[in-house]
Specification:
Chain lengths: 347, 347, 347, 347
């Protein structure tokens, strides 16, 4: 039984780690931390966990709170993990960071986009980018995982193979993403007050969202050259899920079926990637609550464009589910363990 | 042109007053106040008001801010109006208070339920309870209006005539109300964060909601004797609207049609009350955006119960629309002026 | 491995049976039927099942289609099971009927409320009412289960013990229930068109909903005498979940805590019943996606009323999850098998 | 008083015409038609119109049904207006067609995309494209208006001036639009059943939506050369509103402020166009219920892209409101008459 600690368990991704790990047959949550809920039971604070018999909240987000854990998940504001990770690694604990601190190969990129000083420039080079479908080998050997952002997961998975294949123009990638509001975290702000967003929809973070460099880093890796993307996120009036519509320019004449095949072949055997066939296209709710990414494509001969649609659950494949998938890999467990709910609660 | 001031114009009911009065042919908003937005234009703070050319926010919730206004609306937290009203009245300004401070004939009731000291016990006796369909005469003559609460409006309108008629047992009134989230105000609390309430529904304030004594005060007036009610509100995952389901015990054998008729007769000529006929029953959205109250009833011979369903928009007939209706009355304007949108934006 | 057949697998409850059983370690779905989708794969018709490798749809809702199955679930319109069940039982197959045909001890009640002739009056007496928390013993021995209705499940579970205890007046039970729209089934009707219900809410089926006699049958059993209830359902603008607010008159002076205790004691050891303690009250989403029923109560000394709030997922504990729970019982499997997701996908 | 007839008044756009015209000071609805509701009152069929005292439904969608009307609105399935319009024009009635039959200058385009034979090739050349902000002069003189599609309205208004100015590349226009479900009409299809779309989101009509050629026709007009666009619509889980995110490639170095200014100048004095200034960006609900179009832009120097965001209410500016605006123009009334609700019901 693997002992697991979660530092920052009161946020949505922290809660989601508990939900998933509570049913994991080889993991046991032995520590959860929350600076605001010290000593309280999770079910007292969040009634959706009624009946869960795990540990009470430890009040300190410190390495001591997770002493004895084999794996430590960090679900913290950006920047906080920078100081926490070194002492954890020193004790031989494996660390999966759900924030952005260890996602970048180049600490300078992080500094530019996150406006924070990156104090662990060497360490970040040793971290694996936790997207198993692309970096499975690196992940298995890593002690530190930079768990991918939600939007980047939804974009990299479908576009990476197409760039690798050379079928689309790396200079003309337009990403139009739409996310449920849980992506913003457990916010106490009037702008996220229920009536404000009910029946509403909006774009935000234009020309500057911090997931942009993460997408570019990985797509550049796939393309074998520097890639810049135009990334525009939107806020959907739902709790969960990301749907990304990715507009690509074709570099050669291919059909929808050929693209479906190249993607299906690239992801053959992958338990969490589902490439749909025309006439189906992914719908948001087909992924919600699962660790799956569904992908659909359409080639438009008339305009020489390809439109790619992908969906994930931002809290699962886009955060905590992927983190557990990474845990399974670094702990030599079956990759799908604890993530077996392939088919969503629907409708 | 009547000069209008709104003290507390950043909340939902304050905003709603602006929305309604902006199209009122005989009213001109000359002052709006907000302690947090001094000097800013309304449209800068709230993009839904883009193009509105009213005054900028005055930064003080004080009588000075509304000097020169003929009518002053107060959209403030409970308790604040107690001190503000006397100086306004002294200057001859008419006051419509959207809070609870002047809704009770008996200041002691207010003190018990609101846990606040009522410093204006004499003044509150002179205030009219601003439900025009019942107190039109008193309102016309008043300088101070205690504008009714949203839930009470939805309950008193359908039940008052039935108690007056003596058809239902005043000792067995069960009120099960459901409100959109805007009723809670512009909240910056995690409990009102969009994802928390999305797809959710809950009861709250059981056995202690502060609209209970207001309902009881008015139903007692209708019944001609003291009435106690069991009132249970719920939070609907929508922005606007209240639907109240009121469970009554019959004291005599009547049909659904007879009840419809008694209500239709009582409210004959009322522009904002619509009594539906079987098989129709009110739906929440049929009232949203309008100042109307729709009412439907069903008699259940099998159990000797009557079920009454009423809907209003909590922000319009339940707050700011009714306040404007009251303004029309105290200013001798046609009662429906500025409130002519009888049919909602639908679907 | 138990072989399972689902007759009527295109509706919501049929789909939900597949979703749950797909992860059941001891059950294998060997037949699904649909008159409209013969020969098609489930995933082709419903993209949320992408990747599911079960049987294709058989085009006939007949016993032949489920030949060889140990357990047969019927998810059909009311009345259809009456003819299907006898031949299935003759072949020694166990039958769990999710419709109303075998829920009533007295076929006459069914005929009165469902306006259908009940041709299996003797058989219905042998059927167990599939509410395990109350009829576990009978269920274990039955070949035929009448799986409870969704609303009745949400009402009987909290009220049955209170009536048994004699703490509430059986003549004054007011049930105000609210259900997500999936309860109406996969409807192709304009009244269920998305825009009609979006932001909307309404009561329906007043004084005549067909779940009334089912509730009365079971509460009468609990009370040891005939009970009539006033039952008013509403349509919530969400996909899933039922919250029932039940208004009861106290027959003796008890506290909220005493009621919580009596319920907790009655349901001690029950894996799917969760009695909350003040100040918590159940929220709809705390049950969605799980087979749990959460219950909360409040005593109102002032009015001598008790208000009970219960939540379930209408598709799980209110239909397909409870059906699987029943399957586990009649097949001598652990009762919670396949139903282990105790904590919902939240938010 | 202008006499108005609405052929096809049971659909959403027909209903919306009634809602708007019911408050129009110079128009009187004298005829509404519906093949399915002959002889019934509108309020009987649609409870949201309770209290409206207009004519009952005429059961025939024929010219006779609107005899005596000065202006006739057609809210019918595509293709039906082709035969109806000539006899109406012959009687001297002005016609505003909300369908696609008379939106195209070139009937061949219509035939290609709508798969219908266009029998009125000459007549369509005389029709004005009813986008007043661009074709006001033509509209004033026309007897027949092809009222624009909803998506095209949301796209043409912001992009037309930018193409005219030559600031963006006409060969790289990517339109990613999101619409509320009312855009699909009053559907009785399982795919539009409330639970299917609740919490859901999807793209549809990729590489083939019929609003594409309409957008191209008008943008080509603005650019002074043939323009092809890539248009991808999505279905938002809300009732109303369209938000279009338009991705453009800059042809010269400009700033966000310069683009805002060029748009503001182009639409100076337009009552229904609101160009927002950074940092504001339009939100869907800021337009819902109004006839306004809000526009915001951001220039991304890093990628040399411009992102334009526009919002309209698909039922108002995208259909019935614009139709009334056109009616005002062809009847020499103030253009904003009956459309004065500039600020939406919010939140």
């Amino acid at each position: 039984m693997i002992k697991v600690g979660i530092i920052g368990a009161t946020g949505y991704t922290g809660n989601e780690l508990v939900r998933i790990l509570a049913n994991h047959p080889e993991a046991e949550i032995t520590a959860i931390t929350s600076r605001t809920n010290a000593g309280r039971k999770l079910e007292e604070v969040y009634g959706n966990f009624t009946g869960w018999n795990g540990p009470v909240f430890s009040g300190s987000d410190s390495p001591d709170a997770v002493a004895g854990c084999d794996v430590v998940f960090l679900a913290l504001p950006h920047g906080v993990a920078l100081e926490l990770v070194p002492p954890l690694l020193e004790k031989g604990q494996k660390v999966i960071d759900l924030g952005a601190d260890f996602r970048f190969r180049d600490a300078a990129t992080y500094q530019t986009w996150y406006k924070l000083t990156h104090t662990q420039g060497e360490l970040t080079k040793t971290a694996a980018y936790g997207l198993p479908e692309i970096y499975r080998k690196e992940i298995r050997q890593a002690m530190l995982i930079g768990n991918p952002g939600c939007y980047p997961t939804s974009v990299i998975l479908p576009v990476y193979p197409l760039l690798k294949e050379g079928w689309v123009d790396p200079d003309r990638i337009i990403i139009d993403s739409k996310s449920g509001v849980s992506g913003a975290g457990r916010k106490a702000e009037a702008a996220y007050n229920y009536p404000e967003l009910f029946g509403n929809f909006k774009a935000y973070g234009l020309a500057g969202h911090r997931h942009t460099p993460e997408i570019e880093q990985e797509l550049s890796h796939g393309a074998g050259r520097a890639v810049k993307v135009s990334f525009t996120p939107h806020l959907l009036p739902v709790a969960r899920g990301i749907l990304s519509t990715i507009h690509l320019s074709l570099t050669k004449s291919v059909t929808t079926q050929e693209v479906e095949e190249i993607l299906a072949r690239y992801y053959q055997g992958e338990p969490f990637i589902k490439v749909l066939k025309e006439p189906q296209l992914p719908e948001l709710k087909w992924a919600v609550g699962t660790n799956c990414c569904q992908i659909g494509v359409r080639v438009d001969k008339r305009t020489n464009q390809m439109i790619v649609v992908s969906v994930i659950d931002n809290m699962v494949k886009g955060a905590s589910g992927q983190a557990v998938q990474n845990m399974n890999l670094i702990c030599d467990l079956p990759e799908t363990m604890g993530l077996q709910q392939q088919w969503p609660v629907y409708p």
